[in-house]
């Protein structure tokens, strides 16, 4: 069993602190920036979020395959952290820059810069996430490492969400467009520094069993990517059908969705039954869709991203219009993220006592119940808003911590069952559903607000949209949390089975 030194866990955590200067900033403020500063209609912004996030999710799969086939003196995953960092900082600034152009040109600019930002984030964060799976072979150490990671993530989020409104006001001095741009200069510089800390302080150690066999070699990357393009319709067409049903919500979209899902099921079932005669890339995909622990985690990842994404996506609107104090949103974010750091750091200790599956269920139920309470809080009772929000966030912080540590278990399960392990692909598929969930969450916030008639540049529409903001802070996200809690009950890997798999995998690797 490989134990990690504290300095390496802290160094790894700095990478997600840097990434969340982008992720938390975009998730929490990009929507309100687009509608209230940049000048894009809420309905147009909703489509933008949905399209970009879904396309971004597909690039996650591709990036996972590229990372798995990367071999350098620095390892498979660490080099990508180094190479992608300058582009991530650049597009972070460009996404919050308001050029003096026409409204239609602004929409094009938003698509280009947001796609650039998400693509740079993918090239950086997919290898970063997969790095956790090869730093140690100890599942307890992975849980601890995941706790450090998300403590760092929440710290990065704290810096953006807690101080961004004040920094925008300071740098802009009444000009929000200029304030956002100069604030992002500051955050982009910090991002580059923290990513370098992660690159130089971490090390890859776990070598999959298949890579120790001289008789088994991977196909060239070019061939693998070409093979993957032939499989992409299996991923993209169902996503398109889901998106159409989500956005239009009519009979035709519903029929199209059902037909597509039935055809997809038949195609996948046929490939599974004929898995001895498929390509290596197809075999990787079959290993994913026949891995029960991974499938359950993917469903949970999507639902929990909806839960967290909706809550975070509406906070800026909730405080600006329902509470009536835009700057207080920053203070609220600080409170949430301080509590989140504590929640992430105690997850490993609580998981050892209750088991990860049981703790996951407890965290989901508690966070969802507390979130429902927002429906009954009047706008003038700020104390209750902070108490309830921080209480829910303590449990919500455990959710991503457990999710990413358990993805490593699913990769172990694949290697134990099939003798093959594609760590990058497993983690990229995990970030894929996180991003698609985030895309749907961001779009749902804007769709609900648009349904209530909200237009960011028209103050007369605010009053009618307030009930929608309250629903988005309470019952709507809680529904997804309760669904995820039901799904985790089906997770098959017990503590005893995980320990047995780990011991057997170590013995197999040492025997080769």
Keywords summarizing the entry:
single chain; 512 residues; mainly alpha; Growth Hormone, Chain: A
What is the rounded Rg?
22 Å
CATH superfamily: MFS general substrate transporter like domains
Helicity range of the residues? over 70%
Which consecutive residue ranges, at least 5 long each, have pLDDT under 50? Answer: 212-217
Shape: globular
Distance between the termini: 17 Å
**Extended strand count:** 0
Query: What class would the helix/strand composition place it in?
Result: mainly alpha
What's the CATH first level? Mainly Alpha
Overview in brief:
By secondary structure, the chain is mostly helical.
Describe what this molecule looks like in 3D.
It is a single chain. The protein contains 18 helices and no strands. It is mainly α and 512 residues long. The chain has one domain (6-201, 279-511): Up-down Bundle (Growth Hormone, Chain: A), CATH 1.20.1250. The longest helix is centred in the first third of the chain and has 34 residues, at 139-172. It is globular and about 70 Å long.
């Amino acid at each position: 069993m490989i134990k990690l030194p504290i300095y390496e866990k802290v160094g790894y955590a700095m990478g997600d602190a840097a990434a969340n200067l982008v992720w938390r900033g975009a998730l929490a403020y990009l929507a309100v920036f687009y509608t209230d500063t940049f000048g894009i209609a809420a309905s147009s912004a909703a489509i933008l979020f949905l399209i970009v996030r879904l396309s971004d999710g597909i690039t996650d799969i591709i990036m996972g395959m590229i990372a798995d086939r990367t071999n350098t003196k620095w390892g498979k995953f660490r080099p990508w952290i180094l190479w992608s960092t300058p582009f991530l900082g650049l597009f972070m600034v460009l996404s919050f820059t308001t050029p003096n152009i026409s409204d239609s040109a602004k929409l094009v600019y938003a698509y280009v810069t947001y796609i650039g930002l998400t693509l740079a984030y993918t090239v950086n964060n997919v290898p970063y996430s997969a790095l956790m799976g090869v730093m140690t072979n100890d599942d307890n150490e992975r849980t601890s490492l995941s706790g450090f990671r998300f403590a760092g993530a929440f710290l990065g989020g704290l810096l953006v969400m807690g101080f961004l409104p004040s920094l925008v006001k300071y740098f802009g001095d009444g000009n929000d467009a200029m304030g956002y741009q100069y604030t992002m200069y500051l955050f982009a510089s910090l991002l580059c520094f923290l990513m370098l800390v992660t690159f130089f302080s971490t090390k890859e150690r776990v070598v999959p069993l298949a890579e120790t066999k001289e008789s088994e070699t991977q196909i060239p990357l070019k061939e693998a990517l070409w093979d993957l393009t032939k499989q992409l319709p299996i991923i993209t067409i169902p996503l398109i059908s889901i998106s159409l049903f989500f956005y239009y919500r009519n009979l035709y979209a519903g029929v199209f969705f059902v037909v597509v899902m039935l055809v997809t099921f038949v195609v996948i079932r046929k490939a599974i039954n004929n898995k001895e005669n498929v390509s290596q890339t197809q075999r990787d995909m079959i290993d994913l869709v026949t891995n029960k622990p991974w499938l359950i985690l993917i469903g949970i990842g999507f639902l929990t991203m909806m839960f967290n994404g909706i809550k975070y996506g509406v906070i800026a609107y909730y405080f600006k219009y329902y509470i009536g104090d835009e700057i207080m949103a920053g203070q609220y974010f600080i409170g949430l993220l301080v509590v989140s750091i504590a929640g992430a750091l105690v997850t490993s200790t609580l998981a050892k006592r209750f088991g990860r599956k049981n703790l996951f269920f407890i965290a989901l139920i508690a966070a969802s119940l507390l979130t429902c309470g927002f429906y009954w809080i009047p706008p003038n009772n700020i104390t209750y808003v902070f108490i309830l929000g921080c209480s829910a966030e303590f449990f919500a912080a455990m959710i991503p911590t457990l999710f990413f540590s358990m993805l490593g278990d699913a990769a172990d399960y694949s290697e134990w069952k099939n003798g093959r392990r594609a760590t990058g692909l497993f983690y990229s598929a995990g970030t894929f559903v996180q991003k698609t969930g985030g895309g749907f969450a961001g779009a749902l916030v804007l769709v609900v607000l648009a349904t209530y008639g909200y237009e960011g540049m028209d103050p007369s529409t605010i009053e009618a949209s307030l009930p929608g903001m309250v629903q988005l802070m309470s019952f709507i996200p809680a529904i997804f949390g309760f669904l995820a809690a039901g799904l985790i009950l089906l997770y098959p890997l017990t503590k005893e089975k995980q320990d047995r798999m780990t011991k057997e995998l170590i013995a197999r690797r040492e025997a080769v």
